[in-house]
Amino acid sequence: MQLVDQFLRKINYLRVSVTDRCDLRCVYCMKEKMNFLPKSDVLSLEEIERLCDNFIDLGVEKIRLTGGEPLVRKNIIHLIKNLNKKKSLTNLKEITLTTNGTLLKKYAKELKDNGINRINVSLDTIVKEKFKEITRFGNLDNVFEGIDEALNNNIKVKINTVVFKNFNEYQMTNLINWANSKLLDLTFIEVMPMSDTDMPRHMQFVSLDKIYKELNGIYKFNQSDYQTGGPSNYYTSDKLNIKIGFITPMSNNFCATCNRVRISSTGKLYMCLGQNDFVDFREILRSDRGDDFIKEKIRFALSVKPKRHDFIINSETKPYINRHMNETGG
Ligand code: SAM
Ligand code: SF4
Question: Best exposed site among 37, 129, 199, 320 by fewest CB in 10 Å?
Answer without folding.
Answer: 129
